[in-house]
Amino acid sequence: GLSQYSSDPRTEWELSTYSTKDQVLEALRNLRYKGGNTFTGLALTHVLEQNLKPDAGARLEAEKLVILLTDGKSQDDANLAAQTLKNLGIEIFAIGVKNADEAELKQVASAPLELTVYNVLDFPLLSSLLGKLSRVLCARIKEKGSKGTADIPVNTGPQLSPSDLKISAVTSKSMHLTWSPPLRPPKKYRIVYYPSKGGASKEVVLDGAVSSLHLSNLTSHTEYLLSVFPVYDAAVGDGLRGVASTLPLSSPRSLRVSELSHNSIRLSWKAAQGATQYLVLCSAAPDGAED
């Protein structure tokens, strides 16, 4: 599977799209480079939410590896998103090109760093990594696979996935989420949310017995993408997703002018709900206009 990203991640193909090496190589030859910003945290969250789920071809019993290729420093919190993946048993390899931040690569990558972090001066030099990286990836898959996995059903469905996400009590800076738990109670929930037009993702971790959350300190008049993931000892169930927008801030109304004098004016208005201060701007009318 492959996703490209700038300020907005884009899935190029899923894990289940192609079944042969030749098909993947042909898809790579036809790939168009996506320029733009470097929101690596948002991209890693996209991979977790969109690409590493069963209906995208991810198998619960299979090892999960993510290879991050970047030529710049992230403009959001890549470390937090990477830690979320690593906490779920997903191994991250970080490859930097040109202006990549090596310290950030080491934060994002899984241990041991001598096997998972690579850095080259330019894109043509990536070819020098192919042999070693292929051998390391294969060895890591065999090593992790030999340890065995817990007896968890491959077909998630309602067994491991929550349903019926409801969003209520929406204000300019908060909203309330509720959902129906899966048939098999999870160990915990991960709730990830971020503005749909780009920005740092945030997450909340809840006990598996809880099935509601009040989100606060949101930005007004903003559309948010929301995901609820059930987390088990050796797997993550399919995420429950939703979209909701916070309300715009309320405005003062019914502006009235009174008590005019040669150097003063009294203004009055109906209060704006939730306002803690008002900013009053005053300027002289343009030349020739009525004062």
Please identify which CATH superfamily of the largest domain we are dealing with. von Willebrand factor, type A domain
Mean of the pLDDT scores?
A: 86
Provide the CATH architecture of the largest domain: 3-Layer(aba) Sandwich
- Encode the helix/strand succession as letters: EEHHEHEHHEHHEEEEEEEEE
| SS-derived structural category | alpha+beta
Number of strands: 14
Which helices and strands appear, and what pairs or packs with what?
Layout lengths: L1 E3 L5 E4 L7 H9 L10 H12 L13 E6 L7 H10 L3 E7 L4 H7 L4 H4 E4 L9 H16 L11 H4 L2 E6 L6 E6 L7 E8 L6 E6 L4 E4 L7 E9 L8 E6 L7 E6 L7 E5 L21
Parallel strand pairs: 3-4, 4-5
Antiparallel strand pairs: 1-2, 6-7, 7-10, 8-9, 8-11, 11-12, 13-14
Question: Can you give a write-up of this model?
Answer:
This protein folds into two domains: 2-147, Rossmann fold, CATH 3.40.50; 163-246, Sandwich (Immunoglobulin-like). The radius of gyration is 25 Å and the shape is globular. The strands form five sheets. The chain has a four-stranded antiparallel beta sheet with strand order 9-8-11-12, covered by helices on one side. It is built from seven helices and 14 strands. The longest helix is centred in the middle third of the chain and has 16 residues, at 130-145. A hairpin with a 5-residue loop joins β1 and β2. It is α+β, with helices and mostly antiparallel strands and 291 residues long. α2 packs parallel to α3 (78-87). The N and C termini lie far apart (66 Å). It is 21% helix and 27% strand. It comes from Tricholaema leucomelas. Pfam families: fn3, VWA.
